[in-house]
Design a protein that fits this description.
Blueprint: E1 10-11, H1 14-23, E2 31-35, H2 41-49, E3 52-57, H3 60-70, E4 79-83, E5 96-100, H4 106-115, E6 122-128, H5 129-136, H6 146-154, E7 155-163, E8 168-169, E9 176-183, H7 192-202, H8 210-214, H9 217-235, H10 266-279, H11 292-304
Parallel strand pairs: 2-3, 2-5, 3-4, 5-6
Antiparallel strand pairs: 1-8, 6-9, 7-9
Helix pairs in contact: 1-2
Bound molecules: S-adenosylmethionine.
S-adenosylmethionine (SAM) binds at residues 6-11, 35-39, 41-42, 56-59, 62, 85-87, 100, 102, 105.
Length: 310
Amino acid sequence: EFHKSKGQHILKNPHIIESIVQKAGIKSTDVVLEIGPGTGNLTAKLLEVAKKVIAYEVDPRMVLELQRRFQGTPQASQLQVVQGDVLKHDLPYFDVCVSNTPYQISSPLTFKLLSHRPLFRAAILMFQREFAMRLVAKPKESLYCRLTVNTQLLARVSHLLKVGKNNFKPPPKVESSVVRIEPRHPPVQVNFTEWDGLVRLCFSRKNKTLGAIFKQNACLDLLEKNYRKFLQLEASGATAGRGHQGEGTMEILDQKRLGLSDLADRGKFKDYVLNVLREGDFGDRRSSKLDQEDFLELLARFNAAGLHFK
Ligand code: SAM
């Protein structure tokens, strides 16, 4: 009677549960957020060490089972169960998130947690093995991708534990892994929408050179549209002092900015864009081999030239 669509695979191996809770480093003053408590095997262990557990569970039958399990126990008052889809709720304050995550929401859940404020200390999450390996991948590894750089921009991620299928009931089709996600303190100062726009483009063809990607018309169309907006904003004075030119950070702009009238000539605009890549020696490089710092530098160079990705 488990719901496959809700990713209901109950963790039944008590050693794994112990290990997860121990690695979470929970203090007796901590509020713990749990996503998808299911029948409450992990919840029971969390209640032994935390001050409070707030658990989001979408399946009303599981919520009932959970309430029945803890009703009348000394721990009942430490547990708050919220019935509903965690992605549709504003999260409360929490110190640590521990969860045997429903795999179908892995990615949105990760970014929801990382955009939550105030920042939490750590999240200890069970994911599908491949998803976990993408989170911890390094440049040049085959699983290094947009998910990797976006996550590592916001957090340090480490692999903690491999968990085989047979530790679950019913066993899922895929292997699992537990990872630790620690948000960066303080958060990196970057416009995440701009960052994601750039990274999306760069990874649209992760093994092509950036030079090849940025000379495509679809890419130039987007940059030109945004460049026109940028020129208008600049003319109206709206960009003054807002850091659009990366003042004081780098000596970037060797070339002259293009004016509106230059945009009639696509060749000119293309040279302008490719020259930003050339100045930073990025033209012949591939996304699969660039690290965090490279992407940040690339974004700063583009923005300094008035090129935006939103
Ligand atoms: N934590 C339990 C355990 O380890 O035994 C159960 C884990 S099971 C993989 C995932 C649980 O998340 C299920 O109980 C499912 O109903 C719940 N769930 C799925 N999607 C959810 C969502 N969007 N919000 C909250 N809970 C969800």
